[in-house]
């Protein structure tokens, strides 16, 4: 398959459409190109018409190169945010790959982005090396392919982090095990068996970007006009999968070294249109994935624990040493692993710590609670000398 970026984006013809039901006859410029090729549907068209000015047009962000962005759907192929947009927006509100934006078109130059249309979904993570700074990985994605490699040890805890963020984004996750040509069917099945309990509600598909095995199943899971994105650690073969879907080596891909370990290949996020009508976003590999405001996603990722918790005697059960805890009963019965509960509790504590840092009142309450615990411990040590180490 080939990318549609270029041939279709060089069309210069535009048409005027009219909006009825307004006090004056407002004329909005909308490109003759079929915007649905880029995923433009009722949600975005209604959002655009609600805020658009006569000289504005909708466009989609294909790539972010820093000062400039590549766009599709307009006569211009590059754009930059207006000074007002940069000044009035938080970091996570600025245009990112996958966004639909309102622009002033300029067929011979650089378009100006005035507004970012409301996002249907957005995958957010904590920016690497920056405490509590939000970074939008991709916007308006319908399905995230969480890519892992069959020739690496399965990492359920990393998968749980990705799943939590994807569920919280509003998109649907699919777990993709790439490089299945490097392992035996028995080894692949063991990896699926290892990962499945940690991914309730998410399909797991094995593929090989090199041989094409499983790729048809992957593609058939996405409807035309929908957007999917590849996310995962460095070297798992995300760019190779995108290239297989495009049918061309548009992304620079480094080979597998002598230890069969992939190397970092993609340096920026980019959106491609495929001939089958779907849209693909490739992302750089991420060494870490810090969560932010992902409580809903946490509930979805650990839906098995949430279902068990409904049977606990106390509504505020922390699943530690409370009587009548249905979660611990399941662990004792072998129906749930202690490791999975501890993983859920760790992510829950991580999110709670972020909430406390953002809310001074919560931070004060947290410190007061722990001060009371410490004072109680000191008091017990005075009463019972055996507690003193």
Total number of domains: 3
CATH class of the largest domain: Alpha Beta
Category by helix and strand content: alpha/beta
Helix content: 25-40%
Count of strand segments: 15
Report the end-to-end length measured between terminal Cα atoms: 69 Å
Q: How would the global form be characterised?
A: globular
Give the SSE order as H and E letters. Answer: EEHEEEHEEEEEHEHEHEHEEHHHHH
- Which segments are poorly predicted (pLDDT under 50) over 5 or more consecutive residues? 1-32, 249-266
* Main sheet record: 6 strands, mixed
Q: Estimate what percentage of residues fall within beta strands.
A: 15-25%
How are strands sequenced across the largest beta sheet? 12-11-10-13-15-14
Number of helices: 11
CATH level-4 homologous superfamily of the largest domain: P-loop containing nucleotide triphosphate hydrolases
CATH architecture of the largest domain, by name, is 3-Layer(aba) Sandwich
Summed up:
With 389 residues, this protein is of the alpha/beta class. The protein is built from eleven helices and 15 strands.
Q: Which key features would you list for this structure?
A:
single chain, 389 residues, OB fold (Dihydrolipoamide Acetyltransferase, E2P), Rossmann fold, Ribonucleotide Reductase Protein R1, domain 1, six-stranded mixed beta sheet, 15 strands, 31% helix, disordered N terminus
């Amino acid at each position: 398959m080939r990318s549609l970026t270029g041939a279709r984006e060089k069309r210069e013809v535009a048409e005027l459409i009219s909006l009825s039901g307004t006090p004056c006859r407002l004329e909005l410029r909308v490109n003759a190109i079929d915007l649905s090729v880029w995923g433009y549907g009722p949600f975005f068209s209604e959002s655009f018409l609600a805020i658009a000015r006569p000289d504005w047009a909708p466009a989609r962000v294909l790539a972010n190169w820093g000062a400039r962005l590549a766009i599709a759907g307009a006569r211009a192929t590059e754009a930059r945010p207006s000074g007002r947009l940069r000044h009035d927006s938080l970091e996570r509100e600025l245009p990112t790959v996958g966004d639909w934006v309102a622009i002033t078109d300029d067929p011979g130059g650089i378009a100006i982005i005035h507004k970012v249309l409301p996002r249907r979904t957005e995958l957010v993570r904590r920016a690497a090396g920056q405490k509590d700074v939000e970074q939008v990985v991709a916007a308006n994605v319908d399905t995230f392919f969480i890519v892992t490699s069959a020739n690496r040890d399965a990492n359920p805890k990393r998968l749980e982090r990705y799943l939590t963020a994807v569920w919280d984004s509003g998109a649907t996750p699919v777990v993709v095990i790439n490089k299945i040509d490097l392992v035996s069917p028995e080894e692949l099945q063991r990896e699926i068996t290892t990962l499945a309990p940690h991914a309730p509600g998410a399909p797991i598909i094995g593929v090989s970007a090199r041989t094409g095995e499983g790729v048809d199943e992957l593609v058939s899971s996405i409807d035309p006009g929908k957007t999917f994105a590849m996310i995962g650690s460095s070297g798992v073969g995300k760019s190779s999968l995108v290239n297989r879907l495009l049918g061309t080596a548009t992304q620079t891909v480094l080979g597998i070294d002598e230890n069969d370990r992939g190397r970092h290949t993609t340096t920026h996020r980019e959106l491609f249109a495929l001939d089958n009508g779907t849209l693909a976003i490739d992302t750089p590999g991420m060494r870490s994935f810090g969560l932010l405001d992902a409580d809903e996603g946490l509930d979805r990722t650990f839906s098995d624990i949430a279902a068990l918790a409904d049977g606990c005697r106390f509504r505020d059960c922390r699943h530690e040493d409370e009587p009548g805890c249905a979660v611990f009963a399941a662990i004792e019965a072998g129906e749930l692993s202690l490791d999975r509960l501890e993983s859920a509790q760790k992510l829950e504590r991580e999110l709670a710590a972020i909430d406390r840092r953002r809310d001074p009142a919560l931070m004060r309450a947290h410190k007061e609670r722990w001060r009371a615990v410490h004072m109680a411990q000191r008091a017990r040590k005075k009463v019972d000398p055996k507690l003193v180490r």
